[in-house]
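Weekly puzzle thread! Below is a chain. First person to post its structure in token form gets bragging rights.
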Amino acid sequence: MNNSSQAANGTQYSLLMCHRGNQSSALQWIKIIVYLVILFLALFGNAMVMWIIYKHRRMQTATNYLIVNMAVGDLLMAILIMIHNAVSMIRGTHSWVNDAPFGQITCKLRMISQGSSMACSIFTLTALAFERFFAVVFPMWKVVTVRRTRWLIVGIWIASLAAISPMLYAGKVKLYDGIPFCVEDWAPAFDPKRSPAIFTIVSFIFLYALPLLFISVLYSIIIAKVWGRDIPGNATPANQRLLNKSKKNVLKMLVTVVLAFALCWFLMHLNLFLMDFSDVFYPCGIPIGLQTTGFLFAHANSAINCCIYVIFSQDFRRGFKEILKPLFPKRSGTLIVEDGTRAGTTRTMEATIDMQTSYKGQPQVKAFKIIEDTKC
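Winning reply:
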């Protein structure tokens, strides 16, 4: 492709258009397998997070409603973006449908879906930080209630769609060497060189750097408060430890989610900056390792959050076990043991073995049923 001629036409390249013919077949399939694992975890994990909170009424708190909102955004990312990416990777091309107006509409939908999902995540993380801040620092102020959280979620989605709304214009299907691609194209209404660079800077500031700064400040205050505050009244040392442990687990979980978002999306932002501000890397000069890692990490964020919830939250672990329980049915077996209470007696018993609650995969005997007693 001719860089100068395409730039003159006012079209912004997409990283997905860059041909990577020097990649080995084995490397391509490793990338595909990793991406399919990420896709499965994003679909299954986020659906389970939503179902667990829906089924357990005591988990329907302001914090968990915001967690559900993140799961919805991640699930939409998986359905609307990642499934198509997986199919395109297997086909070996990221070409787009060129049928008007269907191709143009779906291209704009893709741009909006990916951007709004990322914006929803960072806005929800900011809302979670504020919710935890008021719950810990000002516990008597009922600022973020369950009812208000529902309206807050509506506002998050409106803000997310508004933040990425320029893609309704810029997302277009363009032909390159006769192949249609869904790309970011700001012409003719806007400057084709400056507009994508400005949008990249604005997105980085308001959808990444500034929210993460606010979140960092809030969680720093919360952590100092939780680690240094005692329970008022006649709390026993046991109650003190229990409450502190619960608060610390929630904070660890939420801080880990924030760190995962920051790390996963950093490389994608770096790729965009290299494309928009360096002639060396535009359009296809970004090293394949950096491009692939940024692509996989950004989409892996949709699958990582549900794993973090399971690691840090006993409620989510219990919920996942309940859902997976039918896949590991109980098994019964017959054991013959010698009854020590009555000499010369052999007792035949039926043992119920529970595999799903066993420790380190070892069967756990849950119940005995006496079948018969035999005297020797």
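Puzzle host: Confirmed. Bonus trivia for everyone else. The longest helix spans residues 237-277.
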